[in-house]
Specification:
The chain has 190 residues and is of the alpha+beta class. It has six helices and seven strands.
Length: 190
């Protein structure tokens, strides 16, 4: 499968390549039971629109729709952890990039698909030569994402307390990613 990303358009009247707006699409994803760790289970469409309008207006945070062969299949957020999410919780280094991702729910799961998605997300982030390491802060209870993070090269550095959750602060350098099982499975090379 070929993955690409495009900026999420939070405008209510934008329908992109689907008949629904990006926020309508994402609303269905973030409120799905499998997205419990996204912390938006009870969000209304207007809440999602407001959230992604704020992200679009923020100079240190971006949101993207991930496409698999042209079809929306994941959400990706990129942020500067020195200014968003982790500000004051760790010593940010030049080249640090924060990331969130969410795979669209499906009734017909494909084995290995989520690993392909996180690998594509990491490829996208490391395509910028300024990116030296990717930083994530998943909920300590989210064992599925811990396994995925491990597969693409992340190492847990510390357990941290955030207002909304206890999280594992984790890092993945370019070198760790290139040496990971996820990169190898997708044929990523130097």
């Amino acid at each position: 499968m070929t993955f690409t990303v495009r900026p999420l358009d939070p405008s209510p009247d934008f329908a992109g390549e689907t008949s629904v707006s990006d926020c309508e699409l994402v609303h269905g994803w973030v409120t799905h039971p499998k997205a419990a760790f996204w912390l938006m289970q009870d969000a209304k469409l207007q809440d999602v629109e407001r959230e992604y309008m704020a992200i679009a207006a923020h100079e240190h945070h971006d949101a993207f729709i991930g496409l698999g062969d042209g079809i929306p299949v994941f959400l990706m957020e990129r942020y500067d952890p020195a200014h968003v999410e982790l500000q004051g919780l760790y010593d940010a280094e030049p080249g640090d990039v924060g990331m969130h991702f969410l795979v669209a729910p499906t009734d017909t799961p494909v084995h290995g698909f989520t690993l392909e998605v996180i690998t594509a997300v990491m490829e996208t982030l490391f395509a910028d030569p300024v990116t030296r390491r990717v930083v994530v802060e998943p909920d300590v209870r989210n064992t599925a994402v811990h396994a995925l993070n491990d597969a693409v090269g992340f190492e847990i550095a510390a357990r941290i307390e955030k207002p909304e959750k206890d999280a594992y602060l984790s890092f993945c350098t370019r070198e760790q990613f290139l040496n990971s099982r996820g990169a190898a499975a997708r044929g990523v090379t130097r």
